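FAQ: What does the model actually see?

It sees only this:
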Amino acid sequence: MVDMKEMRMKAARARQESVDDTSPEGIRRARAAAPLDVGTNRSLSFPAVLRASVEQRAGANPEDPPWIHLSGVASVTETPYEMYDMFGPYTETVAASAFENSLSRKPDVAFLVNHTGLTMARTTKGTLILSSGMQGLQTEAWLNPMRADVGDLVIAINDGCIDQMSFAAVMEEGQWNEDYTEFRMTQLNLNCGDVSAVNYGANPSTTIAARAQGFLNEIDRLPSGAAMAALRHLELRFGRQSDTSTGIEKPTGRSISLVRSALLVDDDDD
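And it is asked to produce this:
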């Protein structure tokens, strides 16, 4: 079985070794940098209790038909989750105050389903209200019941088929802990992003990492012969060089755990 604890520690050590500038200022800049190859765009999904009710909007004309009121939490805060960068696994957390600065600037945010499709509600129209609460990014959306897609969404929520929410934002600030095993997002920009009701909570990792992790899980199921062949191939790919005296390739010291981590940054072109 994959030793995730050992893999995590080796990945952390590799991150530390990647810091070229060992001065205090250089280390400070490195710790404030985003995880390599993950990027600043975040689309993360979390379990959320989505509630749908038919209500009259405050200030609306009493003769107007009632709207669909959806409430939920688009992002939980202070809750660690697993992520991967080019070195391997680490833990990431959204700080409780991560959205406050962006919300104070009155961002333009849309309410969507699965981050796609027509906008159902929008902050600039007053039909989407976002706030930073004790649980995380609180969402209040008012949807037009005359729309067919809104009716379908409400049915899916009431049937329990959609029970998660997600947000899409840009990370502006973050911080590594002392040993590079945990990354804390301290400031997220919601402007031109969205909050979404989603079918499934997406694994909060890069597409590359999600695909590679599935491959890693299969390694342990390989017959011994196939496993040894795979190991030789990976060593040749990531960790061997030729001995100039004998012409025989030899290991360069890279561990197989780090080879596993290196898989997470393979090209995504295929």
